[in-house]
Write a structure and sequence with these properties.
With 378 residues, the chain is α/β, with parallel strands linked by helices. The protein has eleven helices and 15 strands. It has two domains: 192 residues, Rossmann fold, CATH 3.40.50.450; 146 residues, Rossmann fold. The protein is globular, with a radius of gyration of 22 Å.
Length: 378
């Protein structure tokens, strides 16, 4: 009999997180289950720091709010935690402490709201006896076995609006405007916002680009009387002769994606200007994409995910990820989400063993972009 459950929101903040929390809490209360929230993601799990969540209290008025009321952490790997001991930095596996914390608190299930890295740790905890249900959260839309993650629609909407606004400046000043968007190792945001905003070039991590192809597209537009162009580039895009542009390399330890991407937009704008002679400017959309009010679509999707997560818990269906496939809610084993990345505490992110969802070349989005005349850099 399910009596007490707890929610963890981990990784970067994301539109819709609070809506999921609200849906879990309300569904729990409908079925006589107490709901709690760990503070600051997996960090709260280690520190045993949690609060009661009630629809008449802390979990009230959440549907439209961005961020997460219980905080999040994207630099905490509890299987290899970076700590200071005797003035020195050491790394410790504190996962067993966390398991004991959950047992002592009496939680029958832990809901992990997060993306690839969060669900990797969730799978690792499930092997230690915790009952876990994952909910796919990331604006990058790269969680395996899930056709749409909550937060993604909001991010694409924000990016598409930015493309609309950049059109005005580009056309007025006869410039090339480059927009760098998020997405890490997957190009979903870049490609969909380029299509939605009518961009001329979309560069994504899945297709290493040839700068000559980009320049040719811009020059052909100029010859046709279009003396401006819009280029959308994913932060993880790279040229066929280069690599991803890394803004900073962190030292948060094994099991985390320590690479902070950023800078490809500025590099691309400079190269386009030198090769075409056209004034080129770069805009980095950054955290604007994942902050603020979720779209109506994301509010509904988040509510559906939260309800389904609680339903799975009530059914005793644990150690799974809530999924959306062909428009229907379902679930898949966390083992399937992790894929070949089986080692406990191993790094998530853009590795060969990571099972993140990237754009395939036979995806309809690729076909649509090409037939609309969008240059993909190849």
């Amino acid at each position: 009999m399910l009596k007490k459950v707890a929610i963890i929101t981990n990784g970067g903040d994301c539109p819709g997180l609070n809506a999921v929390i609200r849906a879990i809490v309300k569904t729990a209360e409908t079925n006589g289950v107490e709901c709690y929230g760990y503070i600051e993601g997996y960090k709260g799990l280690y520190e045993n720091n949690y609060i009661r969540l009630e629809s008449s209290g802390r979990a009230s008025g959440l549907l439209h709010r961005g961020g997460t009321i219980i905080g999040a952490s994207n630099s905490t790997n509890l299987f290899n935690l970076k700590v200071e001991e005797n003035g020195q930095t050491v790394y410790k596996d504190v996962s067993d402490i966390c398991v004991e914390n959950v047992k002592k608190a009496g939680f029958d299930c832990i809901f992990t709201l997060g993306g690839d890295g969060t669900q990797k740790s969730a799978r690792d905890f499930s092997t230690k006896g915790l009952k876990i249900i994952g909910v796919p959260k990331t604006i990058d839309n790269d969680v395996a076995h899930c056709e749409m993650t909550f937060g993604y629609n909001t991010a694409v909407s924000v990016a598409a609006e930015a493309v609309d606004r950049l059109h005005s400046t580009a056309e007025s000043h006869h410039r090339v405007m480059v927009l760098e968007v998020m997405g890490r190792y997957a190009g979903w945001i870049a490609l969909e916002s380029a299509i939605a905003g009518g961009a001329d070039v979309a560069l994504i991590p899945e297709i290493p680009y040839d700068i000559n192809s980009v320049v040719d597209k811009i020059n052909r537009r100029r010859q046709a009387g279009k003396d401006f162009s819009i280029v959308v580039v994913s932060e993880g895009a790279k040229s066929k002769d280069g690599d991803m542009v890394v803004k900073k390399t962190l030292d948060d330890g094994k099991g985390l994606d320590n690479i902070r991407l950023g800078g490809i937009g500025e590099q691309l704008a400079e190269e386009i200007e030198s090769r075409t002679g056209m004034v080129s400017r770069n805009t980095v959309l950054g955290y604007v994409q994942r902050g603020g009010t979720p779209t109506a679509y994301d509010r509904v999707l988040s509510s559906k995910y939260g309800y389904k997560a609680m339903e799975l818990a009530l059914e005793g269906n644990f150690n799974v990820l809530v999924t959306l496939k062909d428009g229907k809610l379902g679930s898949v084993s966390l083992e399937d989400v992790v894929g070949n990345n089986k080692e406990i505490g191993a790094r998530s992110g853009g590795t060969e063993t990571t099972n993140i969802k990237r754009i395939k070349m036979d995806d309809d989005l690729i076909k649509v972009a090409r037939n609309l005349g969008i240059c993909l850099g190849d």
